[in-house]
């Protein structure tokens, strides 16, 4: 009987299951490239208060959602593309001011300027350059002027890395995690934000040590770490996947990092795609 991992919407052979779902099934709760520490720095930079209307893109297992809700924002809206994943997040929500909608981050269906805070983690890395731009533009559209937007993503360092080496890293990470991945350099992440009308206010970079024992203990605690380790030891196909991912991460450890950026939507005449007024048909 083949070893399978249950993931949202389907059963897949574990060899073809995206890496983050393999790790989730093994008990890993913190699935961000910079770990819990970089997520906490991102949230500190966002400074969420009871006056904020928060939108989170792709909350996944809901780890950051729970941290956000501890700040008691005025409203919280999650946009998750998968219904079963959305159900995980809804289990953490309480009250009419908190909701999780099934939809796409590039086209949320939300009104213009309804949010004061938008953030997303470990999701833009998995998108093409065009889709990255669309999602960041959508964040700008739904944010009020002066609102804050934050990302926490995988990045490739240094900024001047050779293009061939960058493409090799993208290719090998994609193969290891069995999901398209296109991490870019810190300066490229910042340019994407700036091109969409954002002003960078905070930046932090951390090693990409997602599968290193010290980071796992820091993120999951000793109990969580030993649970994951036991599952890895007793599930040979999952163990092969985890070791394969870690091998690639270690191979490129000098060039793989995690980055968080917190930015403010400029008060300017920057026009976002969905805000362009219709042409006057009378002329």
Your description of this structure?
The protein is α/β, with parallel strands linked by helices and 283 residues long. 39% of the residues lie in helices and 23% in strands. The chain is built from nine helices and nine strands. It has helices spanning 19-25, 35-46, 63-69, 83-90, 129-142, 163-177, 186-195, 213-234, 236-251; strands at 4-7, 10-13, 53-57, 75-80, 98-102, 115-121, 143-156, 198-207, 256-265. Strands 5-4-3-6-7-9-8 form a seven-stranded mixed β-sheet, with helices on both faces. Strand 3 (53-57), helix 3 (63-69) and strand 4 (75-80) form a beta-alpha-beta unit. Helix 6 packs antiparallel against helix 9 (236-251) and helix 8 runs antiparallel to helix 9. The protein is globular and about 50 Å long. The chain starts with a strand and ends in an 18-residue tail after the last strand. Mean pLDDT is 91; it is low at 1-11 and 276-283.
